[in-house]
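Example 3.
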Amino acid sequence: MAYLFLRLSLRPVSRLENILFPADLKRLSVDELSQLTRELKDFVLANTEVKAGHISSSLTVAELTVALHFVLNTPQDKLFWDVGHQAYIHKILTGRNKAFSTNRMKEGLSGFPNSSESEYDLFTTGHSSTSISAIIGLAVASRLSGESRNHVAVIGDGALTGGMAFEALNYLGESKEDVLIILNDNNSAIDANVGALANEKKYPAFFESLGLNYLGDCDGHNLAEIIPALQEALKIKGPKVLRVLTKRVEVETPQSALKGYTAEFVNTLRRLAETDERIVAISPAMLSGSGLNEFQKQFPNRCFDVGIAEQHAVTFAAGLAKGGKKPICHLYSTFSQRAIDQIIHDVALQNLPVVFLLDRAGLVGNDGATHHGVFDVALLSSIPNIEILAPASASELSVMLEWAVMQDFPVAIRYPRTGGAIPPDHNPRPLELHRMETILKGNEKLAVINFGFLLGEIEEALKDFEANPFVFNLRFAKRLSAVDLKTLSSFPNIWVIEDSQKRGGVGEYLAQQLFEIGYTGNFHHSGLPDEFVEHGTMQELYEQYGLTHIEFKNRFKKFLR
Amino acid sequence: MAYLFLRLSLRPVSRLENILFPADLKRLSVDELSQLTRELKDFVLANTEVKAGHISSSLTVAELTVALHFVLNTPQDKLFWDVGHQAYIHKILTGRNKAFSTNRMKEGLSGFPNSSESEYDLFTTGHSSTSISAIIGLAVASRLSGESRNHVAVIGDGALTGGMAFEALNYLGESKEDVLIILNDNNSAIDANVGALANEKKYPAFFESLGLNYLGDCDGHNLAEIIPALQEALKIKGPKVLRVLTKRVEVETPQSALKGYTAEFVNTLRRLAETDERIVAISPAMLSGSGLNEFQKQFPNRCFDVGIAEQHAVTFAAGLAKGGKKPICHLYSTFSQRAIDQIIHDVALQNLPVVFLLDRAGLVGNDGATHHGVFDVALLSSIPNIEILAPASASELSVMLEWAVMQDFPVAIRYPRTGGAIPPDHNPRPLELHRMETILKGNEKLAVINFGFLLGEIEEALKDFEANPFVFNLRFAKRLSAVDLKTLSSFPNIWVIEDSQKRGGVGEYLAQQLFEIGYTGNFHHSGLPDEFVEHGTMQELYEQYGLTHIEFKNRFKKFLR
C-alpha cells in the first residue's frame, strides 16, 4: 500500500473532515479532489474490518466516486451503483462520514446501499446486474413527469455478464432513454472475470450493436480525465456508455484453509470425483467462495466457472446431465433466486440428476438483507421431482452429497458457510429417502424436529434438563414418509425448528400433513418471520429471532417440567 | 395461402407418406426435399386446430427443419429447438407423422418438444432462451466423453432478447465449445420483436464482439442455400452462428373481442389510468395476449413492451415505481418464474408499489407442463412486503386491481385467462386487507375456503343440497386476519380448495395458522399434487385432479348429510 507513505509526505491539509455532503465537493479544484480521494482511501482502510472484496471494490472506484459526486447533483440526479459493494466512498461523501465506523455492524451502516439509510442510496442492493433496468425506469418516470435530471448507472464488467443487464441494454438501445451507463472495467467479477466480452475487450462493437452511443474509455484513476469525460457525456442526450478503466486495488486478505461446511463439501466432492469420472462442477463466479478452486486444481477440465450468470449455470448443468454427466451446481442460496425458472423448467421438468449445492443458506450475517439465504426452502419446495435437503452438521453435508450424486433425480442441498456458534454433537447415519433421523430419544411428551443447522443450539439448550424430548432431524424438506408422520403424531407436542422463513418452510408442510392424518396435539413452529432481516452477526440475528439455545431453553422448561 | 394452389399443379408424387424418420430424407434430391417441404406445410395446416402462434412458427421454419434433418444425423447429433413452439415439422419428420393429428390433445402429442415422447426431443421445453446453455452443456459432455457429434441450437430473434441467451453466448465465446447456433431471424417474438439488436440488425458486430464466428446469412426458404450453408458451418470447429432469414408465414386468426378476466383487467386498467396519470403498464412480449394492446391504443406513451425479458420488465417497473409511477407489470404466471429474484430484491425489498398481474394462473390447458401457472403462490408467498391475491371471478379481478393500485406496497394478482367452465355467481364486496369474503352462510359443520377461480365449481356442486356449508373466499394468500382465523376455528370441518400446487399453497399456511391457535377439528385440502401436469383441456385436467363439481359433490355428500 505504497500510497499510504506517499500521502504522509504530500499531505497539505485534511479535506475530508470538511466534506459532509456532495455539495461540499463543488468548490474544490481537481488537485484538491485528488488529495481528498487519497484521504478517502486511507479513511476506508482505517475504518473497516479486513474484508477484501468490498474494500477493494470501493477503493478501486474512489476517483470515479469523487468525480461523479463532483459532476452530478445528487440526490436530484439519480446515481445507481450496481451490486453496491463498491459504495463505501459514496456513503462517506453522502452524509455518513461519522457513521462509517459502524459499517456492517448491527444497527450500524449497511455494507451496501440502503434506501432506508440515505436518500442518496436509490435502492437497497446487493445482487448484481440490476442497475440498468432500474435507472431506465427512473429515467422514463422523470421524462413522463417532465422532470429534467441526469440518470447514471455504474456497472462493473463482472456484473455486465448477468443476463438481465443485457436485457436492459437491448431495451435501452431501442427506447433511447436519456441514460448514462458507466462501465467500470477492471476485468474482475468476484473472481477473475469470465466471458468472451471481458476477455476480447470488444466493448465498442458490443454496445454499438445494441444501438448505444459508445463514448470511449477514460483512465479511472485520473480525475483530470474522468471529470471532463463525465461532463461531456452528460451533455449528450440519449443512451450512452462511458468505459472507465480501473486497476483493482488489491487489499491483502488472509488466505485461510477450508473449514466447516465448505471443507466437507470440497473434500467429499474431490473424493467422489476421483472414482466417478462423470462428476463435474459448475459455479457462477464463486470458485473461491465455494471452495471449488481446490476442486479445480485437481480436476481443471471438470470445473466450470461461468461468471455471474446463474441462469446459464443451471441450464448448462442441465445440458451436462442430459449428456450423461453428474453436474454439481454450486450457487449461493440468495443468488439461486435468479435461476428458479431454470431449476423448474430445465432441470426438474426433465428430471435430470443435477445436484445443487445452495451455500450460505440461512442468515448470513453482516451482508444483510440482500444476502440472507432464507427463501430457498420456500422457493424450491413446490417444484416436483426435486428433493431438498439440509444437513444439521458439516459432517452430514458430506453424507448428503454422497447420497445425492447417486440419485437419478435432481437434489438440492442447502447449507450455511460456517454453521452456528455451537456445532452439534452429530454422527449422521446413512440417508434414507424421506426418512427423518432420530437424534435423541427421550420424554414422550415432546418431539422436536430440526431442519437445518440449529441442532447445536437445541442440544445446548437441553444440557441442563434431566429429561430430554425426542429430537428428530428432518433432512428432507419436501416429503416425510408416512411411517415417520405416524411416529410424530403419537407425541402430544410437536415443535418444528427451522433456520429460514416459516412461510413456505417445512413447518407449514408438516402442519398440513399432520392435520391430514388427524393429529390433534399441540404444534409449535420456530423460524424466521415474514420480514426482511437486516445485517448483524449471525449470532446476533438468530438471537433477535429467538433461534438460539437461550430462547429454546425457556421453551423447553415449559414442555419438560 | 397461395402455395396450396401452386402445390396442386406441381405435385409429382407424395413424398410425405414415405418419410417416417430423418434417415428417409437422405436419399432425396433438393428438388424432392422442396416438394416434401410443401407437403409438410399442407399437412400441418390440415392437421392442426387454428392456433396461429405455433402453426406460423412451425411453417416459417419448414425449410430449415427439413434441411437440418437432412444434414444432421439426429438423434446422435444433438438438435435443440429454443422454446419449441416451432417443432411441428420436426415432430412429423421424427416418427410422429401418424400421431400428429392428436397434437395438443390429452394423451396425444405435446405441442412442444417433449423428451418423454421421442428421443429426438432433447428437452421438454416451452420457455424461451434456454437452448444455448443446454446445447453447450451437451457439447461439453460429449467432449469430456470423447464422443464426436454435432451440437446445434435453433433460436429465434425474439428468444435471443432473453438474458440467459446472452449469458450463454458470452460463455460460449470464451469456452469455444464446438456448437452451431442458428439464429432464425424473422423479426418476431410473440408480438413484433423489440430491442435494439433486432431493429438495428447489427448481428455480425454483436456476435463477433462475443468471440463468436459469425458465418453470415442465408435465405431460410431456399433449401439450395440452407443445405450447403449448414454443411459448411458444421465443418468449422468451435462456436459459430449462422443467421437464417425467414419470413413469418402468417396464418389467419380470428380476432376476438376481449372477454372474461382479460376484458375485466384491461377495461378496469383503462378506467383507472384515465384519472391517475401515474399508472403505466409493462409487458414482456405479451401485449396482445394480455389485452394491453387495447391499453396501448389509448395510452401509447404509458405502455411498455420490453420484449422477452421478464427480469428487465420487473426491475424496470421497480425503477418506474421509485420514480413515482404506478407500474402495472403484466406477466404470464409461468414466465414470472424468470423474475423471482427481481420481485424479491428489486421490488419487495424496496417495498415499491408495483402491481403484478400474473395471467394464465392455474392449469392453462393444452400448452401443457411448461406453461401451467401453478407455482406462483408457492414462489411468492415467502416474500415479505408483497400481498398475493387471487380473484374468484372475473369481476373480482376488477375489484382487486382497483384496490391494488391504491396501496403503497407491492401486490400480485394471479388469475386465469378464461376462468373455469362454470362462472361463479359472485358479486364481490370491497376488499379489506387480510380479510376473507363470506360467499355463503350455511351449515356450521363445514367451512369451505376457496382460493382462486374454482368457486363456480363449488357452487355447482352445492346445487342439489338442501343445507349448504359456509363458503369463504380467501382472497389474500399470505395472511388471514386473526379474527377470520378465529371464525374458521369454530368449524369442526375445514376444507381448503385452491387451483394450484398444494405444496407451498394457502392450505399449508392455514393448517399451520390453525394449529398455532389450537384448532383440533378436521382439515381437508384440495389442490394440485406434487407432480408436473401434462396437457389437455383445462376441464379435462381439473377433472383428472378431482377439482371440479363432480368430485366436490361427492365430498359434500359426506360432510352435509
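Chain A has a mean pLDDT of 94. Chain A touches chain B through 118 residues (CB under 8 Å).
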